[in-house]
User: What shape does this take?
Amino acid sequence: MSSDERLQNPLTDALFEAILLLKNKEECYRFFEDIATVAEIKALAQRLEVAKMLQRNETYTAIGEVTGVSSATISRVKRCLNFGADGYQFILSRLKERNN
Assistant: This one.
């Protein structure tokens, strides 16, 4: 499935190209600390953890307790897992491969 055309534009392309130039976790921390708020970064990290937990078939209650996100956020991540652009699917697969 292709990415959402509403998201695609030269500025977003440039952002993603910049992210792809980051070489390690330290560079990611430095770049994202400057480009995003702490709350924005934490929200992205929470969503990734929600996706991991949903793949493990954990309950909304357990996910909410661990991540602190609302059931609405859990539902949104679940929709993306099931009907999205497969972004969560392929990154979770790559993370699993790396950890094996």
